[in-house]
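Technical note accompanying the year-one report. For the benefit of new consortium partners, we illustrate the data format agreed upon in the data management plan: each record pairs a sequence with a structure-token string. No post-processing was applied to the example shown here.
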Amino acid sequence: MGTRLADNVGQGGAGGDQFRTAPLWGLGQRAFFLHDGSQSRVYSAIDSHRSAGSEATQVVTNYFNLSTSQQQDVLNFLRSL
């Protein structure tokens, strides 16, 4: 999860800076996002993953390098799940 999202709570084999991500199916029906429900927008949840030590940093960077229209296409796809 990186330093920004780490909650220092272990779950099973995952340490305090790790989290097993829930499947994306049903994402379009959710009102809150992230492991702790701290984000109410998919865009904000994506941005929250950009932090030191996060395995998602490169993916988030790639997302923000897309055009605004392409970013919206990704959000629309995720909301369709």
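Partners are asked to follow this layout when depositing records. Helices lie at 2-5, 42-48, 57-64, 68-80.
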